[in-house]
Each structure stands twice: as structure tokens, then as C-alpha cells.
Automatic annotation (TrEMBL):
Domain of life: Bacteria
Enzyme class: hydrolase
Pfam families: CHB_HEX_C_1, Glyco_hydro_92, Glyco_hydro_92N
Stated name of the protein: GH92 family glycosyl hydrolase
One record GO biological process: glycoprotein catabolic process
Lineage: Bacteria, Pseudomonadati, Bacteroidota, Sphingobacteriia, Sphingobacteriales
Annotated GH29D-like beta-sandwich domain residues: 782-841
Statement: the UniProt record of this protein carries the keyword Zinc-finger: no
Residues annotated as domain Glycosyl hydrolase family 92 N-terminal: 29-263
Length: 1010
């Protein structure tokens, strides 16, 4: 063989080896563009695992599909900012925006319709590239190539300019994603450094981002502005619209590098971060380091099956999997500087010895993301939980939805609890379990968020608390978690108490209709129940879903829930009907409810465990079929490849678990329900002594039914696997087929089990309902016959009229109570003389009300009835109070700038007070009026002003309340006419997803007390 041939052969072999090696890099299978279209809400930019910096392009800052700042429907880029949220349903961040330009200085970004009016630039998706830790795009308007990479706390930009004497870099501190600037400043040091602060108010009420920016090339000219007036050569500027513009002269193809370090603490903290993580200027080195960091992170789960590049379907499967795993490692984010300092929940500066994290979307991530961490990164999960406990010490509460050391209060439950409990119950906790238990118990024993009623009554009344059924169900699950930890810590009384509370999910199950259903404070079921009716956070009985989706949520007592439905056959029939329903819903702004199969919604978290429930009822083959269908049809390798919000890793964690072949139906149980594996061979924690491999033979898109299984080469007939089996390592092998095996994992002893058995001596609480007035009306005209009832059949009712608490010594209710003045009736339901309900306090008010058949009182308005909310103004005088469900038919809605109500009474009357109720539900675009003014008149011409009440515009993503405003009618004459003037706040504020649109005003009831 001649040497030339040997060299050629060696060259070919080396080239082949390099290509194979490159193809096997797991980062090559990650596509950060997945989820950037549709409603995925992901961003494509550069970040490291759990990185403080998420450096990414912003194409829009307002609206539902721009929560991450980027959407693939856009064709222009505003610039590149350094903080972003991945897949959230709420918008914020987008801090410290940079944009390279050519030509005249421009202060404003311009619009999507006309980018040329500002510094925005058009771009083509064909010129975009993205991989873990890297993003690039060609800015068409300026012929600039922009490239981004990052370290944990520093964003690194590389801009390749054309030849130009007027090349610029814009820094815009006004820019943010649906937030408002509280204060900001920019300061220019020398000719290559900029420092400053952007402090904002949005979803995060008070967020600090200090920064330092270094340029690789000195700028020749600079200007600063606060608003529209440039100050050339100005070294410092403070305000709420602060911007800086820096000019360079560039040669063709010249690169200008820019480093941006951030900190929640101080400029000095940002400087330390920069010096520690990015002292040099080698962009390629940082890009390569970022890729290596991601490669190491992704190696925690390795797909062993070789993939032929010609088999596009398998390549896509692998791409979907590793992109999902990539998305699992974006949040939560490191929040401390390299010296350990960070700004805490109390806004004070604290110091940690490890890492402190932010961005806790716990309503989402408790379900699968944190359980995934317990398998592949328990050390990280311990750091995360220590952050939760530090937040508790600083604020007095465990986080619900924490963002930049702010409690947003978004979503429901106290889902720090299952995350913490899971680590304790699995024996993985390195944090203070005593402190953790104290914090968990504190969350469960609060009085807000409906817990007061939940503790007292065993259920949450739907008219007193929004999303009452969803809250009931999720509180019950969290309580089960607390009970398990209490038992582990030897706290027997707490164990029994919280275990009993964990069974209260049954209190909202109505066997008459076979659904979880809302009931009012008196125990009456929602009379207008529709299981397909979707409600969102802040309205209705359910959170971002309906009864179909929530009626299967009792992961702490699945077997008990099955019995509620009448046993296995009836339960599986109910599950069948879930998937076979028409996927119709009245979802208004509930855009999360997506990815529908019947009424099942993969695009939102309450459904995520449901496909696995068949296995508990002895039909695991249906679980296998559905899980495969969801994984292969609702997750794709396209930009719209997520069927709903990514939600900080939860959507992806569902896929990762399900592709492996099992899922944590009860996230804190340590048991995983088997579905069906997607790959021929996958290893969890490879290259360790405790690697765990899942193999599947005969698997294909059509062959997903399990015929048999083995664990460590021993036959395995169970439909579940324990956490302990996985972490000690081994081999789980499946034999798959195109037809179901209706014997495997079907026997009762082989099914997953999740049930609650109370200790023999535990007290079982009985529901005892308060008395109520049969008509439901507490407003009356003239006189009223009060008829009392209770939903507890064998209870007697005792009442008082003097304000005292009724007992068995009080009057026994035997016949209606006649009243002709405003009166307060206190009533109690009692069984066996000593078992008492809560006391009902029924305030009856003598007021002017509208009789549909009578001409008076006449109420008119200058508002045209809305097609969206079509109720007429007459509902304001129908003697029925609206509930937190703003669609209950008792609210009058308007989105006018202002409107007036005029009431004409039948004859002049002495009026004592005027009262009017308004709802605030910011998530549903419903805000309190800016002002409410009451006026009274004898003749309808001359009015006496009774007073004006004012409200401030809230700064909260979800603020929900019903407030009553009133004034005494201190006129010297009887009145016949009343006016109420109501002024709207203007447009929705900048932090709101619907910013720029008009908010709604919801009013009810107008009480004219005489």
C-alpha cells in the first residue's frame, strides 16, 4: 500500500471519526427554536444551565405570545436583552437591551409595521442560528451580524459591522417586557465602560438589575437621554426612559465585542461577576465553553440508540427529547453574585455559601420537573430548596410563584410543599428538615387564599373565593405531603390532622353528576354547573381549566377517588369519556387550555398525570396508547412543537419522563407509574456506578404496547417502579408490540396504588352546613318572610335577632321569620345538641329593588350593552349579589372611558345609604374604577354631590377582590333621582399582558337602603 493511499485513508477515517463524534454530541440535537411559535413562549437566545443571564433577541414586548419577548411570527428585532422567562404565561424581564445600528441616532425602537422609524431591524429566520449557549442573526436593515453567548452571569455580544463611519450600539433601559421602570440610571466611565441600574415594577413588583458593560473598542462619540432629548457627551443620566447611544467607526467585517454583567445587588457585584467569569475577549472560547457546559448537563440522560441521519423521524425524536431536557435546565436561575451576595425577599442584601435561585413556577414544576431533579441532580434540588427556605426566613412564607425575589402570588396551592417533601421522603435532604417542616406547616395554616374556610368548613365556598374547587383539590394534595413528613418526623397529631385534610377533596365531588363541583358557603352545589366551562385564574371554580380536567386530581388518594366514581369499570369509562368529548370550551382569555384530546389538555398542567390513571384501575394498555399518542403527536421538532406554554420546564419534564417510560403521578410518593418507552435504549446517570438503563425491543411508532418486562433480568409484572430501584442502578427492559397485552400489570397486586387509610383512632370530620335563606335574597322592599334551610338533613336550626351567638337555648326555627326593617339574623345548625355548624350571619337590608313587571325604579345608562358580557343595567337592582365568577349573570360590564347610571324612584323617599360593589380581577382585564361618584336629586335637575371615592391602579399580575363603596345620603329632603358616575382607569397598564387595551369595569349590586 503506498503512503499516499495510507494518508488518504487515514484522512477519510479521521474525518469520519470527527463527523461521528460531532453527530453524537448531544447539544447538536437541541433546537432552541422549538416552542418559539404557537403558545410555547420560549426564547432562542444564549444561556447556561440555571444561568442568571438569558441573552436573547426581543421581537415584541406586549401581548400573550410575547411573554418571553420573542415570537417566530415576527420579522423584526428590537434588540438583545439579558433576562428572559422560558415558557411562562405571564410576562416580565427583558432587562438591559442592546442593539447595534448603522446611521443616524434613534432613541425609539420603532414599530413592527415600520421598523425604519426606530432602531429596530428586519431579519429573516433563515439567517438565525441557535444552539445551547449561542444565538446569531443577520440584521437586514444594518447588514450587521449579531452573535450572542453567555457565562452564568455575563452576556457576551459579537457584532460584525459593515464599513461605516456611523456604527452605533444603543442601550435602552426603558425597554422591558410588559413592565414599567421605577428608576434607572446610566453612567459612562472613560471611553469603553458603561454602568447603571434598571429597577422595574411589573409581574415582579420590585426588581433590581445593576449592570456593567464593557466594549472591546473605544467609542468615539456618545450621548444619553431620558425621553426624547439627547445630551451629547453627557456622562450620566437618571430617569424612567434612560438610553445611551455609542458611536464607532468600523471597517468592513470589523467585530465589536460587548460584555454585559448583571447583579441584583450592586454595580460592584456586577463588576465582580464580570471579572470572575469573563475577564478576556475570546468569543469563540466562551461559546465553546458554553457548549461543553450544556453537553455535560445533557449527558445526565443518554439515548444509546444510534440514529441514522437518513431516518428523519428518529432524528426528530431525539431532537425533541434533548430540547426538552435543555428546557428543563433553564429555570430556576442563579440569583447570587460570585461573592454569594443577593437581594432577598425582604429587599435586604444576604449572602449564601452555595447558590441562591429565583424563578419558581411551582404550580407547574412540582409535578415533574423537581421529581426529575431528584433523579438526575439531587444536589441542585437541595440548593433550590434551600433557596425556598431562605425565602421563607426573609418573607415569612414559602414561595408560591417567586420572581426576582418578589412573591407574585400567581397560581394556587402551596406547592413549595411537595418539592420539599419529596426530598425529605426520599432521604435526599441536606437542608434543615425541622425548619422545612415549620415552613410547610405555616403555609397550610394561613387564613388567606381560601384557607380560612377550608380549615373551618372542610371546603372552600365558591362565592367567597375564586377558583374554589381547584384550590380545594390542590390544598388537599399538599396536605398529604405535609402529613407524610409529619409521620417521618414523629409528629403523630399533625400526621392525623393533615391526613384528614388530604381527604377533603371528596367534599367537592358531587356523586349526582360525577364531577368535582363548586358549592357555596351553605353547601349548595353550583346550580349552573357545566363541566366543560373553562375558567381562569381569578374567575369561576377552576384554575385555567374546567371540571373535566380537575375531576381527576387527587394524586394522594387515587384508589379512593376511583371508589368515588363507583369502582374501576366506571372510573375507566369516565376516563374514556374525557378523551372522547368534543374539545370545545368557553375559554375567554384562558389560552393555556390547549393541546386538546377531547377535554384532556396536555397544554396545561392539571391534565399531565391523567393518562397514567388507567394503570391504577387495571387498564395499563390504555395508558400506553395515550402516552404514546401525546408524546408523538403533541410534541414536534418544529418551532410550534409545544402544544402549550413550556412553563419553566414542566411541559418538557413531562416529555422526558414519558419518553423514558414512566411518570410521577404523585410527585412526592417515590413511585413512578409505567407508561411506555419511546427509545430503544436510554441510560439515566450514565458513566456512574448507579447508571439505570431502560431498553425496549420491537419498539416503533405503532408498537408501543408492553408485552412483558424485566428488572435486572428478572421478570417484572408491576405497572410501577420505585425511586429506590432507579437510583441504585440497573436495567429495566420492555418487550413491545402493536397489540395490547391485557394481562401485564393488570392483577391487583401489580397495579400502582395510592390510597389514604386513616389511623383507627383518627377523628373523621363530618360536613355540617350553615343555615341559609331559602330564596338567597338578602335585599327586600317593604317586608320579608325569612325562610331558613340547611343542607344537613338531620340538623335543627336555632337563631337570634339581637346580635348574639345562637345556641340550643335560643329560638328554634319552626316557621318563617317576618321582618319589615333592615335586620341581622344569626343562625346555626346543630346535631345532637353539641355538634354545631359555623354561625350564619344574614344581613337583610330594606332597599329599593327592581321588580321586572314594575316601571319603577327606572335605571338607565349611557352604556351600550356589551356583546361580550351582555347583561343589562337592570342586574344592578335585581337583589342578587354577583360572585367571584364574573360570568354568573349578575354583573354589569362596561369598558367605556366613563359612564353614568341614572335611577329614578317611583316617588321621593328618605334614603339612608347608597352602596355599590365592584370586582377587580386583573388577570381577566377587570379593574376597579378610577373614581366612583354618588349624587342625589329631588327633581332630576339639581343634584347634591354625596362624595367621590378613588382607587389606585394595581401593579399585580393577579389581583382579585370584590369591594363595596358607599356614601351616606345626608340630604335634607326626600330624593327621587340618583346618579352614579364611574370613571375607568384608561388603558391597561404596561405590565399587563393586554397592555394598551381598555379594561373592563364590573359592577353589582347598587343598594339603595331606605
Amino acid at each position: 500500500m503506498n503512503r499516499r493511499f495510507i494518508k488518504i485513508s487515514l484522512s477519510i477515517l479521521l474525518s469520519t471519526t470527527i463527523n461521528v463524534s460531532q453527530a453524537q454530541k448531544l447539544t447538536s440535537y437541541v433546537d432552541p427554536f422549538i416552542g418559539t411559535a404557537g403558545h410555547g413562549h420560549t426564547f432562542p437566545g444564549a444561556t447556561l444551565p440555571f444561568g442568571m443571564v438569558q441573552l436573547s433577541p426581543d421581537t415584541g414586548t406586549e401581548g400573550w405570545d410575547w411573554c418571553s419577548g420573542y415570537h417566530s411570527s415576527d420579522s423584526s428585532i428590537i434588540g438583545f436583552s439579558h433576562t428572559h422567562l422560558s415558557g411562562t404565561g405571564g410576562a416580565d424581564y427583558g432587562d438591559i437591551l442592546l442593539m447595534p445600528t448603522i446611521g443616524a441616532w434613534k432613541l425609539n425602537p420603532g414599530s413592527k409595521n415600520n421598523p425604519s422609524e426606530g432602531y429596530r431591524s428586519r431579519f429573516k429566520h433563515e439567517t438565525e442560528l441557535a444552539s445551547p449557549g449561542y444565538y446569531s442573526v443577520f440584521l437586514e436593515d444594518y447588514k450587521i451580524k449579531a452573535e450572542l453567548t453567555a457565562t452564568t452571569r455575563v452576556g457576551f455580544h459579537r457584532y460584525t459591522f459593515p464599513k461605516s463611519p456611523v456604527s452605533n450600539i444603543v442601550i435602552d433601559l426603558k425597554h422591558g417586557i410588559s413592565d414599567e421602570v421605577r428608576e434607572s440610571f446610566i453612567q459612562i466611565n472613560g471611553n469603553d465602560e458603561v454602568v447603571g441600574l434598571r429597577r422595574s415594577k411589573g409581574w415582579a413588583d420590585d426588581q433590581y438589575v445593576y449592570f456593567i458593560i464593557k466594549f472591546s473598542k473605544p467609542f468615539k462619540k456618545f450621548a444619553v437621554a431620558d425621553g426624547q432629548d439627547l445630551v451629547v457627551d453627557g456622562r450620566k443620566m437618571e430617569g424612567k426612559e434612560v438610553k445611551g447611544i455609542f458611536r464607532f467607526t468600523t471597517k468592513e467585517g470589523e467585530e465589536i465585542l460587548t460584555k454585559v454583567a448583571i447583579s441584583s445587588v450592586s454595580i460592584e457585584g456586577a463588576r465582580k461577576n464580570l471579572e470572575a467569569e469573563l475577564p478576556g475577549w475570546d468569543f469563540e472560547q466562551i461559546k465553546t465553553a458554553a457548549d461543553k457546559t450544556w453537553e455535560k448537563q445533557l449527558q445526565k440522560i443518554k439515548i444509546n440508540s444510534p440514529v441514522d441521519s437518513l431516518d428523519s423521524a428518529k432524528v426528530d425524536q431525539k431532537k425533541i427529547f434533548y430540547t426538552a431536557l435543555y428546557h428543563c435546565f433553564i429555570h430556576p436561575n442563579v440569583y447570587n453574585d460570585v461573592d454569594g451576595q443577593y437581594r432577598g425577599m425582604d429587599k435586604q442584601i444576604h449572602k449564601t455559601t452555595g447558590n441562591h435561585y429565583t424563578v419558581f413556577s411551582l404550580w407547574d414544576t412540582f409535578r415533574a420537573l423537581h421529581p426529575l431533579f431528584t433523579i438526575i441532580d439531587p444536589e441542585k434540588n437541595n440548593e433550590i430548596i434551600q433557596s425556598l427556605l431562605d425565602d421563607y426566613l426573609q418573607s415569612g412564607h414559602l414561595p408560591i410563584w417567586e420572581l426576582a425575589s418578589n412573591e407574585t402570588g400567581t397560581m394556587i396551592g402551596y406547592h413549595s410543599v411537595p418539592v420539599i417533601s419529596d426530598m425529605i421522603l426520599k432521604g435526599l435532604a441536606t437542608f434543615d428538615t425541622g425548619l422545612a417542616y415549620e415552613a410547610m406547616k405555616k403555609s397550610a395554616m394561613d387564613d388567606d387564599r381560601g384557607l380560612k374556610y377550608y380549615k373551618l368548613n372542610g371546603f372552600i365556598p365558591r362565592e367567597l373565593e375564586n377558583n374554589a374547587v381547584s384550590k380545594q383539590l390542590e390544598y388537599a394534595y399538599d396536605d398529604w405531603c405535609i402529613a407524610q413528613v409529619a409521620q417521618k418526623l414523629g409528629k403523630q397529631n399533625d400526621y392525623e390532622y393533615f391526613l384528614t385534610r388530604a381527604l377533603t377533596y371528596k367534599n367537592v365531588f358531587d356523586p349526582a353528576v360525577g364531577f368535582m363541583r363548586g358549592r357555596n358557603v351553605y353547601g349548595q352545589w353550583n346550580p349552573n354547573f357545566n363541566p366543560s366551562q373553562v375558567s381562569i385564574l381569578g374567575s369561576g371554580d377552576f384554575t385555567e381549566g374546567n371540571s373535566w380536567q380537575y375531576s381527576f386530581f387527587a394524586p394522594q388518594d387515587i384508589n379512593g377517588m376511583i371508589e368515588l366514581y363507583g369502582g374501576n369499570e366506571k372510573f375507566t369509562a369516565k376516563l374514556d369519556s374525557l378523551y372522547n368529548q368534543k374539545p370545545l370550551n368557553d375559554n375567554e382569555h384562558a389560552l393555556d387550555v390547549t393541546g386538546l384530546i377531547g377535554q384532556y389538555a396536555q397544554g396545561n398542567e392539571p391534565s399531565h398525570h391523567v393518562a397514567y390513571l388507567y394503570s391504577f384501575a387495571g387498564q395499563p394498555w390504555k395508558t400506553q396508547k395515550l402516552v404514546n399518542k401525546i408524546a408523538t403527536e403533541l410534541y414536534t421538532a418544529n418551532r410550534d412543537g409545544l402544544c402549550g406554554n413550556e412553563d419553566c420546564g414542566q411541559m418538557s419534564a413531562w416529555y422526558v419522563f414519558s419518553a423514558l417510560g414512566f411518570y410521577p403521578v404523585n410527585p412526592a410518593s417515590g413511585q413512578y407509574t409505567i407508561g411506555t418507552p419511546l427509545f430503544e435504549s436510554v441510560t439515566i446517570n450514565p458513566d456512574t456506578e448507579k447508571a439505570f438503563t431502560i431498553n425496549a425491543t420491537n419498539g416503533s411508532e405503532d408498537q408501543h404496547y408492553i408485552q412483558s418486562a424485566s428488572l435486572n433480568n428478572n421478570p417484572y409484572a408491576k405497572g410501577f417502579i420505585s425511586h429506590s430501584d432507579i437510583i441504585k442502578g440497573g436495567l429495566l427492559a420492555f418487550n413491545l408490540s402493536s397489540t395490547p397485552n391485557k394481562e401485564w400489570a393488570v392483577a391487583a397486586e401489580n397495579r400502582p396504588v395510592q390510597t389514604i387509610v386513616l389511623p383507627a383512632d383518627a377523628k373523621s370530620e363530618r360536613l355540617l352546613f350553615m343555615p341559609y335563606e331559602a330564596s338567597g335574597k338578602t335585599l327586600f322592599f317593604g317586608k320579608k318572610s325569612v325562610k331558613l334551610k340547611t343542607e344537613t338533613p338531620d340538623a335543627k336550626i336555632y337563631y337570634t335577632l339581637d346580635g348574639t351567638t345562637p345556641t340550643t337555648a335560643s329560638k328554634l326555627y319552626t316557621r318563617p321569620i317576618d321582618i319589615n326593617t333592615s335586620e341581622t339574623v344569626n343562625a346555626v345548625a346543630i346535631i345532637n345538641k353539641d355538634i354545631k355548624s359555623e354561625v350564619s350571619t344574614l344581613n337583610f337590608t330594606r332597599a329599593v329593588i327592581k321588580n321586572p313587571k314594575a316601571k319603577f325604579p327606572k335605571i338607565t345608562t349611557d352604556v351600550t350593552p356589551s356583546e361580550t358580557y351582555p347583561n343589562t343595567v337592570d342586574v344592578l337592582l335585581n337583589a342578587t349579589f354577583g360572585t367571584y365568577n364574573f360570568r354568573d349573570g349578575n354583573w354589569f360590564a362596561s369598558n367605556n372611558d366613563s359612564y353614568t347610571l341614572t335611577i329614578e324612584l317611583e316617588k321621593p323617599m328618605w334614603i339612608k345609604t347608597l352602596k355599590m360593589r365592584f370586582m377587580q380581577n386583573t388577570g381577566s382585564w377587570i379593574f376597579l374604577p378610577k373614581t366612583i361618584n354618588f349624587q342625589a336629586s329631588v327633581d332630576g335637575k339639581t343634584y347634591q354631590d354625596l362624595g367621590t371615592m378613588e382607587n389606585e391602579v394595581p401593579f399585580a399580575q393577579q389581583e382579585i377582590d370584590i369591594k363595596e363603596f358607599w356614601k351616606q345620603c345626608s340630604t335634607k329632603e326626600k330624593i327621587k333621582f340618583i346618579k352614579v358616575k364611574i370613571e375607568n382607569i384608561g388603558n391597561l397598564p404596561g405590565w399587563h399582558p393586554g397592555a394598551g387595551n381598555h379594561p373592563w369595569i364590573f359592577s353589582d349590586e347598587l343598594v339603595i337602603e331606605y
